[in-house]
């Protein structure tokens, strides 16, 4: 029992101090009818060495990193994480701390979150950002709720090209809140259809939600959505599923977004089979008191020295209870720290440069794939590092063949878009070298796939 | 020493990240789409970044720094092997869209964790998807509502005791429910109270057991019976499950749905506020409503089951905080059945030991046997000192303060949860500090009111922060 | 240039402050005839991502952990290292610090070394231990020099069964110090020959050096060496090549050793292809001023609070210069810290228990191997976790065959003992499960090996 | 806060390590050989150990904590990727007796590092075996002696300048040499001095270049020529190689043998005093004498070459501090040729910048152009304050002090080596602190003499420690 310090002598001495005879009697308030007296049916305790061996065995059952040339994106992106990120995250002062309720001994966490909030504002072009949320999908759902709250409206226009996970999560969150969902179709170029949007918008619309990039990798024309939405006083909610794009493309803030949410996994978080990731949430400064989630603010101590505290807690559940802006009572503290460290390393030069690498590699892959007989790019709106490919037959079959050549060629679209059975989503990042791309193209051309 | 903000350290032209040479032709998007610059973004070299965050960390207090008796948060030791486990190649680099045939290890681990949590809690179904306790709560209450709706019931209220966590009412509201407060008696919910409140507008009771006073809800079985008889369901906030591991199972008590806090009970690190994980356990009746996907198996292997027509839907992207799940699985395997029971026993022993030692110095508002935590109040504190002063003074003694001013039913609450990780010596040192502070309060209250003195910063002006919010750095 | 912060503006501003125009002129004292003006012929700078990929590729060329069932010892031992060891070692306050010359900001290193010294004393049964040295072999060489220093004699009796690396290192260190080396043969049981020792000892002998365990895994009869050596006022130097044995076997101190040195790698240090490891060095308290290497001692600060400092520096090179007890000016600080953490985790119960596991596994393997047709155990003196096996033909061939079945069956003795061509050294630790041992035995029996 | 010793935390029955069940019959050695107990050995659980060392670490100051201008120690930033590199499976778990065919990766890396070091230094042969600088020195001087002996020379003396490291005389003594001190002139060794001292009893000159005053030995080429003409060899202490990377190569200067400090020049962490690595480079003439083994290659692959009949033998177990070699290899590959030259340039720029800023506040005993470090003295310090007081006061300003009282040729020496890792802002902050302290010395010398005040402990009584040595805990 290496994690529990008590020996039998300790136990007896402590029981004695308490004034009872047995451990049993400490549980006297638990009625015997509710006791579970049989031992739990779990594997026996294991030594650390055995446990690690078992874990390594399980992990090896997964076909992860190194083994395959992978072109998987669709909401989670393989980017290189410099070693210093994990080194700093592994400092126990960070990762074994709780929520910074006692600011005098939590300035590390608090200052880092303040820096995170600032970075997110800078990146999205917005005035205020919270301390982070569970992930892109749940942030997006919170954004929809907030848009309804501030507009006091209940109709929401959701782009069909928004990440399906985000769409589903929005619907789950709004399930019993009497919302009205309206589908915004996309056009032949893979971007939202502006004419449809004009038709759908009215004075009852709380918000329009679009992806940037959207699920097809397309950088939507935010300026147009913004203009149209604002004509009806609806809010523009922008969901960024690959935030590295913001290193290269105009920020949603400059294009008129009211709320910008997104998935921060690209910024220094491992793929980790889908989580924990990092939801970011930014808005206009005027909406600050309607933000969900935790906020850190600057203040001073008794001597006038700068310090940071959790603030505007009156929005939150522990004060406002059922009137709170959200039921969330945590953030993704350590994930936000990872992103802060990652962004600090890349910075003003590195982030755009990395984004350009991604863009250039994706361009190269697009051009080469489009040149393969039978393959085409069905959408022609601008994309970042991800794009849709149309193949000569069912995408599942194509991907299966590629897999046999140790290539994970992308994500088939048919589970979400049954009419797109021949299409799949291909993502190319800085982790894919030219040789990987060429091998992919060769596999497609050779007809093996 | 002070440490500037990242942005204040910045110097044009610095960068802590080098890219390999671009091995394809350079391309550029249409000019109209390209952003000029990211104004204010920092520019730093690797050493700047390493030092900055190393220094910041030195102003934090973690479980590895010392005793962290934050009530209701279960700040137990986070074994280091768990951190190795979740970083293993095959876990950390596994893309969530990896074909399931190539993710059998991850799926097997999730499946096993589901089974383990069922066994530990006595529930029939589990979702691993929610990202935190409050998120699990939301999933749970959405299932409650879906179940009620499936039966055609029109119930718009939930009962919430005064000993509940603040998330409970907020969660109920998110599900479109009205909140009806339930007064506790002698710290627990009685059958009579519930009988009085439980009408056919009530969808559910949300209860915490052991509750936030550290007390076992002795009447829980009868309370559940009454709620069920009148068509309601019982939601349990599982934050305090640590006290019951291997002792009693919420599923056996009549509870219908409960979230787990893996970051509390199963020792995944709190990370300065997240990420956690909030799996939810449900009875067989609620199983059809679980969020999608659920991990299941056939003879051919493990798979993600999406085909669940009654599901409330998806709570977030992908399948759960997998990295956190790996840690929890590792912890459960390290402890085994015996270790988990020992955990509950030692956690309760520690709380009662602290209680026994401090009863004579601090006012104890509820006298029923404590389980994993004990709540005192500041009523007997001398010199006009309040709970906040005590908390700040404890910092000078090298301890993290307990949870304060919660639960709300105790005025000036001091909520101490030592967890099983702590040895008697540590508890003794803490109790001695508490006793010393009680004396100081009478003899020299300034020591408390001016605390902390040994930290880099003194008490911070929270009012000012809220009145004139500065939520980001500006040049 | 991610490790160098200067940009060109910084450089110009700093040159200006210095009062020179070019970087070039800072090197004006380097005669131009000595300048190396061509760029160094080295691979171009590499991004971290590329570098890690390259390193992983190189590392995969090695047939290490996991792939093979390995029974290799002979001076380096595969023991499980709990995760907390590396976690703590990775704290930058420890690993990026220098020698604790400024005690007020080095109490972490200093207290840990003080604890290390104490643990080594307890383990070896000696009165004083230094802060560590490069490794077992070099510590052993230093021990020989010290024995000569304190006895003012120059003849040293070296067991032929001492680890060959230790023997060679002793000879290198003493190469120009006018020493006399005398070989102490071992008997048919693999232990030193006491009759030979009696014959070799005389009043000119500075020391007798034996292994415990020796190279053949044998726990030498120290009480007898001690008695014989001390009759001639010679020092008994004991070299411990597998210190885990001290968890189970009587300590050299209780058996009469004067100097105990050894290799500490077993205590939490990775195999790492031979280094860095950890030399420990313990002696009688009366010899403290003759110890080589660094020492940490307890003292008080201006307020009388306990603290630790480097002490007895008058023995050392930076004060005594050519009269120093050694030229060493460092210790294996971080390795000593690893051992301190490891030993603290195992402690009074865990260390003996782990030693018993090793012993039991080795016993099982010995018995099973001895039962295989054609194989025998040539030595019968007591061993710990390592032992010599005699095969039916050349050991190299046997080991080669085993290797083809993914078994690294041991270390052939012929490079050091040409007359032992059929013999090899087999080591069994807690890392070898019964299944490994059975597979090994099966491979031997099946005649494949 | 204080932290007890491990032994004082101990409690019977605790253990932080669990073994798996023994899967073979339990066996016991003959009773007479078995030890009863390890008296005093600690008993702790994992959390005790984690907290103990976490707390100890917080009393340390590392490069990641702040500026560490320890002269002659080259305390540059230690890139984190190097720590990942040496822990890779295939490196960390590679047994040194692994058949060489299965260790080709490790051998290739060592071979490449040998080649890199040759290119950087201009030498013809390299051994990677020595475990530290002083160990490399010993190997080098043993080779000198072996070379002399092979020629039949009877030379028993070595020349060592007054600017040398303390290890140089100790090393010479270990090789059986007598030490002849060489006075420097204006901080450097002149040809005339060497001509005067170099007779046929002298085996070698041991020189440091740049020397411990931070000065380039301008006459090095002629000095080497004179030594060679009279039958001697020149040993160079390579501790200060950082200043010359890509600028000039010791092998080209006529130096015959030099050790490298990988933990200085090539950024492997100092680890609180070790492990380092001290490879040695030699000219072709000395190559036959290199310690065994050396890594070499044939068409079939890499191998350890043991067949070197003139070798001085083995310096330690196995083949070198492999884990340190991996880090150095990684650093060299990260920097490339350009990066290494930039390293030297920026290191020298930084030292000269500090010199320029502090020249007016502190006495500068030598005026020749500094390379990578600059040596001041306490001569101008007011209020009777000494170098030691200055050093302790710097701690209160958040800096690690420079090397003090070394080199011995400068009384009250303050030896500052900033390295290339530091930015101008850091140097400015340091220089401002130095200037402030110079003012304080005159105005309020108590601030220096009572320093440090902000550390957990004040100045420690070193005399007491040496007089009544307590070198281990006793119950």
Automatic annotation (TrEMBL), chains A, C:
Pfam families: GDC-P. Residues 1-443 form the Glycine cleavage system P-protein N-terminal domain. Its EC number is 1.4.4.2. One of its GO terms (biological process) is glycine decarboxylation via glycine cleavage system. It catalyses: N(6)-[(R)-lipoyl]-L-lysyl-[glycine-cleavage complex H protein] + glycine + H(+) = N(6)-[(R)-S(8)-aminomethyldihydrolipoyl]-L-lysyl-[glycine-cleavage complex H protein] + CO2. PANTHER family: GLYCINE CLEAVAGE SYSTEM P-PROTEIN, GLYCINE DEHYDROGENASE (DECARBOXYLATING). Belongs to the GcvP family. N-terminal subunit subfamily. This is Probable glycine dehydrogenase (decarboxylating) subunit 1. It comes from Geoalkalibacter subterraneus. The gene is gcvPA.
């Amino acid at each position: 029992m290496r994690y529990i310090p008590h020996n039998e002598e300790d136990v007896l001495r402590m029981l004695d101090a308490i004034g009872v005879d047995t451990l049993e009697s400490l549980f006297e308030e638990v009625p015997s009818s509710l006791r579970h007296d049989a031992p739990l049916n779990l594997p026996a305790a294991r030594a650390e060495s055995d446990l690690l061996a078992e874990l390594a065995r399980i992990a090896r059952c997964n076909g992860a990193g190194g083994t395959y040339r992978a072109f998987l994106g669709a909401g989670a992106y393989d980017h290189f994480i410099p070693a210093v990120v994990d080194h700093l995250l592994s400092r126990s002062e960070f990762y074994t701390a709780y929520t910074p309720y006692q600011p005098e001994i939590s300035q590390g966490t608090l200052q880092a979150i303040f820096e995170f909030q600032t970075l997110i504002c800078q990146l999205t072009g917005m005035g205020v950002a919270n301390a982070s949320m569970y992930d892109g999908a749940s942030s997006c759902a919170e954004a929809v709720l907030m848009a309804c709250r501030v507009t006091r409206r209940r109709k929401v226009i959701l782009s069909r090209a928004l990440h399906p996970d985000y769409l589903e999560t929005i619907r789950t969150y709004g399930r019993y809140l009497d919302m009205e969902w309206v589908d915004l179709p996309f056009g032949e170029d893979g971007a939202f259809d502006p004419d449809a949007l004009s038709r759908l918008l009215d004075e009852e619309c709380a918000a329009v939600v679009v992806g940037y990039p959207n699920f097809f990798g397309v950088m939507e024309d935010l300026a147009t959505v913004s203009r149209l939405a604002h004509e009806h006083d609806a809010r523009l909610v922008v969901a960024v599923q690959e935030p590295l794009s913001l290193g290269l493309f105009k920020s949603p803030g400059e294009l008129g977004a009211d709320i910008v949410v997104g998935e921060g996994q690209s910024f220094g978080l491992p793929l980790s089979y889908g989580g924990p990731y990092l939801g970011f949430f930014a808005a206009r400064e005027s909406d600050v008191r309607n933000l969900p989630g935790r906020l850190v603010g600057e203040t001073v101590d008794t001597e006038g020295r700068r310090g940071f505290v959790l603030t505007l807690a009156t929005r939150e559940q522990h004060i406002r209870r059922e009137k709170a802006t959200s039921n969330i009572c945590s953030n993704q503290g350590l994930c936000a720290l990872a992103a802060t460290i990652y962004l600090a390393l890349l910075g003003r030069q590195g982030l755009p440069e990395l984004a350009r690498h991604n863009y250039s590699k994706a361009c190269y892959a697009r051009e080469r794939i489009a040149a393969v007989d039978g393959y085409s790019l069905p959408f022609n709106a601008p994309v970042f590092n991800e794009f849709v490919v149309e193949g000569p037959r069912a995408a599942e079959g194509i991907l299966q063949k590629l897999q046999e050549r140790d290539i994970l060629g992308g994500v088939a679209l048919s589970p979400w878009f049954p009419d797109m059975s021949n299409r799949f989503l291909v993502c190319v990042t800085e982790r894919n070298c030219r040789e990987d791309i060429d091998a992919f193209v060769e596999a497609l051309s050779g007809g093996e796939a | 020493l002070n440490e500037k903000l990242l942005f204040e350290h910045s110097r044009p032209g610095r960068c802590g990240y080098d890219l390999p040479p671009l091995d394809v032709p350079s391309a550029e998007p249409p000019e109209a789409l390209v952003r000029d610059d990211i104004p204010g973004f920092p520019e730093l070299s690797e050493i700047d970044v390493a030092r900055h965050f190393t220094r910041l960390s030195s102003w934090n207090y973690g479980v590895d720094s010392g005793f962290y008796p934050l009530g209701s948060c279960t700040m137990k030791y986070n074994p280091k092997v768990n951190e190795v486990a979740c970083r293993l190649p095959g876990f950390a680099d596994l893309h969530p869209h990896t074909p399931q045939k190539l993710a059998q290890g991850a799926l097997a681990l999730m499946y096993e964790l589901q089974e383990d949590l069922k066994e530990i809690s006595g529930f029939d179904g589990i979702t691993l998807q929610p990202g935190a306790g409050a998120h699990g709560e939301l999933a749970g209450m959405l299932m409650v509502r879906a179940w009620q709706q499936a039966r055609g019931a029109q119930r718009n209220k939930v009962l919430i005791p005064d000993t509940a966590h603040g998330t409970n009412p907020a969660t109920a509201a998110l599900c479109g429910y009205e909140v009806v407060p339930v007064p506790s008696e002698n710290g627990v919910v009685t059958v009579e109270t519930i009988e009085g409140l439980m009408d056919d507008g009530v969808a559910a009771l949300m209860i915490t057991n052991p509750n936030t006073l550290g007390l076992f809800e002795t009447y829980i079985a009868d309370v559940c019976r009454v709620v069920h008889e009148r068509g309601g369901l019982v939601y349990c906030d599982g934050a305090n499950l640590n006290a019951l591991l291997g002792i009693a199972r919420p599923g056996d008590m009549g509870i219908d749905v409960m979230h787990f806090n893996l970051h509390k009970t199963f020792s995944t690190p709190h990370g300065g506020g997240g990420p956690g994980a909030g799996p939810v356990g449900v009875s067989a009746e609620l199983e059809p409503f679980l969020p999608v996907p659920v991990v299941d198996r056939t003879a051919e292997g493990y798979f993600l089951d999406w085909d669940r027509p009654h599901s409330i839907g998806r709570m977030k992207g992908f399948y759960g905080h997998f990295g956190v799940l790996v840690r929890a699985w590792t912890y459960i395997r390290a402890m085994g059945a015996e270790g988990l029971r020992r955990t509950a026993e030692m956690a309760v022993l520690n709380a009662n030991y602290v209680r026994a030692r401090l009863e004579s110095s601090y006012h104890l508002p509820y006298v029923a046997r404590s389980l994993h935590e004990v709540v005192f109040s500041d009523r007997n504190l001398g010199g006009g000192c309040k709970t906040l002063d005590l908390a700040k003074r404890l910092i000078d003694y090298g301890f993290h303060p307990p949870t304060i001013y919660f639960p709300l039913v105790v005025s000036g609450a001091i909520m101490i949860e030592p967890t099983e990780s702590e040895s008697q010596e540590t508890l003794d040192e803490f109790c001695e500090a508490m006793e010393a502070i009680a004396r100081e309060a009478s003899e020299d209250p300034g020591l408390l009111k001016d605390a902390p003195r040994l930290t880099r910063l003194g008490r911070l002006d929270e009012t000012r922060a809220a009145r004139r919010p500065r939520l980001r750095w500006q040049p």
